[in-house]
Write a structure and sequence with these properties.
The complex is a heterodimer of chains A (about 475) and B (about 170).
Chain A (H helix, E strand, L loop, with lengths): L1 H13 L2 H4 L13 E3 L24 E3 L4 E2 L12 H18 L4 E3 L17 H5 L5 E9 L5 E9 L4 E10 L4 H17 L7 E9 L6 E8 L6 E2 L7 E6 L5 E6 L6 E6 L4 E4 L7 E6 L5 E8 L2 E8 L6 E2 L7 E6 L5 E6 L6 E6 L6 E2 L6 E7 L5 E8 L1 E8 L6 E2 L5 E7 L5 E7 L6 E7 L6 E2 L5 E10 L2
Parallel strand pairs in A: 2-4, 2-5, 3-5
Antiparallel strand pairs in A: 1-7, 5-6, 6-7, 8-9, 8-31, 9-10, 11-12, 12-13, 13-14, 15-16, 16-17, 17-18, 19-20, 20-21, 21-22, 23-24, 24-25, 25-26, 27-28, 28-29, 29-30
Chain B lengths: L1 H19 L17 H4 L13 H8 L4 E3 L9 H16 L5 E6 L6 H21 L7 E7 L10 H7 L1 E6 L2
Parallel strand pairs in B: 2-3
Antiparallel strand pairs in B: 1-4, 2-4
The chains are: A mainly beta (about 475), B alpha+beta (about 170).
Chain lengths: ~475, ~170
């Protein structure tokens, strides 16, 4: 009897629901990267002088030779061994720093390779002769348990001084994360800004003709590597958002035929409805602490914003205008929400307290204001500015000091880098309807397209990974 | 009583407008034979032409009135929409067994999430109008596709006007 019951339970769990949910195999949860002490002389205090002026550091030449290894050993991370892996890591760091237009890095393919013993004690004469102002050294060591130890050092060549060093232990499959951690260490030390490279982006991968687009939930690293599809494409997926701890993704799916928000659990690969309702739910957002979810729900054609505890519970309606109230993005301290409403007759941006009180319009500078997103630094709001064309713009939290950052025909849906310095968005091509993911920095400089295996839209940048 | 009067009042101008624009076609096919023997007599009944309960039959009956169109960012039912919905209401009154979905759509020149909400509003506007004409709301499902399912593929005013629509689709 018990055995039959168990069998029934197994069948119930194993069959059906996953396939019916358009989901691919689960990818497993994000692992934390362990920090380890690395050898070297004590680093000095902060850089001399201040780094508030961007021009003071944006032209810094940085030499990034291949990372050394104590002993060339096989590793699942690189079939040619830890020596070749050290070169790959230096390449990833070089690409990171170059692609974001912040520095002038020179990579391992045009530099001599330092020996393992030189990593904590560089041959400064070699590097000053090459005009490098900053020098990155590092090493890779394969541990007995197969995990990799990666050390990262930043030196000031002129001062002949170590500025910072750090080390991490990563699984072989996570070797790129060590490269991103090292990139973050260099970036933060030289600019005084918060890190952002070791982060992920959820987005929608698009294929097919304009009237029959296949739209799949996908994720990738901040540099476009490690792309993964999470859904199979039989149902349209839209507008994903990573939870602050990367354990879950909110997104919209038509899998039951209607637009509904699902909470997808990355570890188990299972998903649940954000709220049990027959009404359509759209525009999902997390609170900064991950405890609440904002969603918009249409009842009889009227769309309002609701808040529900992320682990279940009763929904609270935050807006009640007869127009379309939608979206919503929390201030980093969680006390306020910026959202979009057409209650005035066209899409404009409004701010309210987190409980829905004190709703007031902030956008008055011409055109329409859509998809507002509060900067992780708190001082800016990015939005889609509709004035003829669609462009990405930023304004302060009172709606003032609007700056338009992009000039595409249709640029839409900004999302902030974890440090609030860079904004990603998607660009739709006129007529063909093809989409691509782009980024631009807060000054409107360094606009570039992100490499995605197929067309991409609805990017959502997650926080720094643990 | 009150709703009946309201319906009658709404019908009158809608019919008048319908008459001076285009269609609906003069002849609507007769209702199907009484159920039960339907399958057996199938081959004899309507040997040509679409079956009742199909989208093709609906289209044959009301023509282009299966779909209504909207101005940019609007969801109101104008005179032309009213005429089309009137034709739909007549059809649905004649075939009370038919259930259907109203799909709300927006053009590509809107942000994705707003367009989903706007499509929902347009589909509901069409639904409410049909209900005011006496169609049982239980027969009507509503779904928004926002800008995800355009019918006209260009990026110009003509294409956008065709995509800002609420389309009634028979549920088979």
């Amino acid at each position: 009897m018990m055995r039959m019951l168990a069998l029934l339970v197994c069948v119930a769990l194993g069959a059906g629901p996953l396939a019916a949910q358009d989901l691919g195999a689960p990818i497993g949860e994000d692992q934390a990267v362990e920090r380890v002490p690395v050898e070297g002389e004590e680093a000095d205090g902060p850089l001399r002088g201040t780094v508030t002026d961007e021009s003071a550091w944006s032209d810094i030449g940085i030499a990034i030779p291949a990372f050394a290894t104590d002993r060339d050993r096989p590793t699942p991370a690189n079939e040619a061994g830890t020596g070749a892996l050290g070169r790959e890591i230096a390449r990833v760091i070089t690409a990171n720093l170059r692609n974001n237009g912040l520095f002038k890095p020179v990579g391992p393919d045009s530099l001599p390779q330092p020996a393992f013993a030189q990593i904590p004690a560089p041959a400064y004469a070699t590097w000053s002769g090459r005009g490098a102002e900053m020098l990155v050294h590092g090493y890779v060591r394969a541990r007995e348990d197969g995990r990799l130890v990666v050390g990262c050092y930043l030196y000031d060549v002129a001062l002949q001084q170590q500025l910072v060093r750090e080390g991490w232990v990563v699984a072989p499959g996570d070797w790129r994360r060590a490269a991103h951690k090292c990139s973050d260490l260099i970036f933060s030390r030289l600019t005084g800004e918060s890190p952002f490279f070791d982060s992920r982006i959820a987005y929608i991968a698009e294929t097919g003709p304009k009237d029959r687009r296949v739209k799949r939930l996908a994720i990738m690293d901040s540099d476009g590597a490690n792309h993964r599809f999470l859904t199979l494409g039989s149902a349209t997926a839209l507008t994903p958002r990573f939870s602050p701890d990367y354990s879950r993704i909110l997104y919209l799916s038509y899998v039951d035929g209607n637009p509904r928000i699902y909470v997808y659990d990355i570890g188990t690969g299972r998903q649940t409805l954000v709220t049990e309702s027959r009404n359509p739910t759209i525009a999902p957002r997390w609170s900064p602490d991950g405890r609440y979810i904002l969603y918009s729900m249409s009842v009889g054609g009227n769309t309002d914003i609701y808040r529900v505890p992320a682990n279940g519970g009763a929904s609270v309606r935050l807006t009640d205008s007869p127009g379309i109230d939608i979206g919503g993005s929390y201030s980093p301290d969680g006390t306020k929400i910026v959202f979009e409403s057409d209650r005035s007759g066209s899409q404009q941006c409004y701010v309210m307290d987190a409980d829905g009180s004190n709703q007031r319009r902030i956008s008055f500078s011409g055109g329409r204001c859509a998809t507002p997103e509060w900067s992780p630094r708190g001082d800016q709001i990015a939005f889609t500015r509709i004035a003829g064309d669609f462009n990405i713009a930023v304004m302060n939290t009172s709606g003032g000091n609007v700056r338009v950052l992009t000039r595409g025909w249709q640029d839409e849906a900004p999302t902030w880098a974890p440090n609030g310095r860079i904004i990603q968005f998607f660009r739709t091509e006129k007529n063909s309807g093809r989409t691509s993911i782009w980024q631009v920095d807060l000054t409107g400089q360094n606009e570039r397209r992100l490499p995605t295996p197929v067309d991409g839209s609805d990017p959502a940048w997650g926080p720094i990974r643990p | 009583m009150k709703t009946k009067l309201a319906t009658a009042l709404m019908l009158a101008p809608a019919l008048a407008l319908g008459a001076c624009s285009k269609k609906p076609p003069a002849d609507i096919p007769p209702p199907p034979q009484t159920s039960g023997t339907g399958e057996q007599t199938g081959p004899q009944v309507q040997p040509m032409g679409p079956q009742v309960g199909t989208q093709a039959h609906f289209v044959a009956a009301v023509g282009s009135s299966t779909t209504i169109y909207f101005d940019t960012d609007r969801y109101n039912i104008d005179a032309q929409d009213a005429a089309a919905l009137q034709a739909q209401a007549q059809y649905f009154a004649r075939y009370p067994q038919i259930t259907f979905t109203i799909e709300g759509h927006a053009d590509e020149r809107g942000t994705r999430e707003y367009n989903l909400a706007l499509g929902e509003k347009r589909a509901n506007a069409a639904k409410n109008y049909l209900v005011s004409l006496g169609v049982d709301p239980a027969r009507i499902s509503v779904i928004s596709y926002g800008k995800e399912r355009p019918v006209a593929l260009g990026s110009n005013e003509t294409a956008w006007a065709q995509n800002r629509r609420a389309a009634s689709v028979i549920i088979n």
